[in-house]
Amino acid sequence: MMIDWEKIDTVLLDMDGTLLDLNFDNHFWNEFVPQKYAEQHCMSVENAKIHLIPQFKSIEGKLEWYCLDYWSEALNLNISELKAEISGLIVVLPHVTDFLEKLQQSSRKVILVTNAHRDSLDLKMEKTCLQSFFDGIICSHDFGFPKESQQFWHHFLQHRYFNKENTLLVDDSVAVLNSARVFGIKHLISVSKPDSQQPMRTILNYPAIEDFRELMVGL
Ligand SMILES: [Mg+2]
Question: How far is the CA of 46 from the centre of ligand 1 (A)?
Fold first, then answer.
């Protein structure tokens, strides 16, 4: 059993790469945006990638990275509109819905905790209809700090109290799990297959699930 469910009263769930297939975001940033950027600047997609990928890398993990307004301005592209254009790729990862249904039947608090921009979040909730499974949705933009920073967790705890000892966080980002560990959240689980189109990842410092069936044991 991966988790002693008796000890858990609050479950914090990341969205992209945890509940939803990261293929959408990876495809969007690595293929679709360079393609649109290339069209706009009359350059090859290859050149657009050479130009854009270092820009993306340079602010990875910062709040701007997740901010659609920032990228719309920086790239002069309507990022929200472009996301909506390929929204058919937004899908829930296998066994997530079963897991959420089972959680809902238990008395545990279930909170979606995401670095995603509100526009992105709204589009994804509209496409997946997962909203009703959550007792709350926390968008790190509302606090002005990403989950990777300690300030985020301090603001979150002030906004909505939870007991760190009895809380489980599932997140595909090791940087976020590290931050949550420093803050003192006791139960941390990673995801080894956040993108259905990529091979499984090896996660070193945290137990990782391939899909949510592994977490449903004992729930
Ligand atoms: Mg994620």
Answer: 27
